Amino acid sequence: LTGTDEHGLKIRQAADAAGQTPQAFCDTIAPKFADAWTRLNITNDDFIRTTEPRHYAAVKELLQRCYDAGDIELDTYSGKYCVACEEYFTDEELLDGGVCPIHKRPVDHFEEENYFFRLSRFQDRLLKWYDEHPGVIKPEFRGNEALGLIRGGLRDFSVSRTSLDWGIPLPWDERHVAYVWFDALTNYLSATGFGDPSVDYTNRWPVDYHLIGKDIIRHHCVYWPAMLMSAGVDLPKGWAVGGWLLVDGEKMAKSTGNVVNPLDLIDVVGVDGFRYYVLAETSYGSDGDFSFEGLVGRYNADLANNLGNLAARVATVVGKKCGGVGPAPRSDSPLAEAAASAVAGATSGWDAVAPSRALDATWGLIKATNAYLETNEPWKSEPGSEVDA
Known about the structure:
4-stranded antiparallel sheet, Rossmann fold, alpha/beta
């Protein structure tokens, strides 16, 4: 599942700047994301837009359940808000000069009547659930980060706005629209049919993993499970938290002009080359530093030279010495142990959502095979059992 989050003040302001309605603005942007995933060979089962009727139904259902459970109450909010993050911050969370810790830009002061989700009631329940489900957040240090947020004390968070009309009206008070994070998180459920009484959403829920970035751990690993607990919905089976791909040590941002478009890169190294680079260059969960030179260098060294030369050598030997048909694998093959180790290591790595570790295991077999060919030079042997081995 993937899609587009289309509500909130940031979208309203971008649409105003473009001289369009928010819906028209989103209608021009959403297809670009869908096309990008297609070009990157991302085979999502569904593409959900948060302006779709099925999503409206799911958000209203989840809101109503939380409200009926007594976990949403009316209050007044006064504080600092980053439009780019669509997130409230305390003074302690802001950087020097009162700027957003993510976007490094000044925040706005908001004061308005809001409905709040009583997150503070869920601290013990969340800690108990995570204790009973160890390892659900990968990698482990990101799980520890989420637990630290919970143990540090939970603040109630706003789930509505009255100063904005671009959003989903609350089912019990249409003066308010749903706060964008409550709205956006619900997309995972709306794609399953949640909110449609004719659909059994549990056929597709709970999911195995949410794939998220490190900057939204609080929303996905604290807010979201508490919302689901309140609504009586099963929690996801796991979260995989990725780091950022930096440029010269800085987070990519339009404001700094350092954004790298992956669609430009696949024109240079292809889709598989780009995907391989991203997975191999970083330890999942940690940040990685992108450079064009690093991309081309890894592509040439790993894929063109090591793997490419191996494939060419094997194809040549099979074509010239084996009549074009590769011999059946043998249990006594000198590479059997390396192959078994590679399979076990790769399987373990992928199961742990550790792509670089899985790829390292695969490269172990590639290196062992290259070394074997260098030592035995089968292209110099006569056709027969010696070559087959």
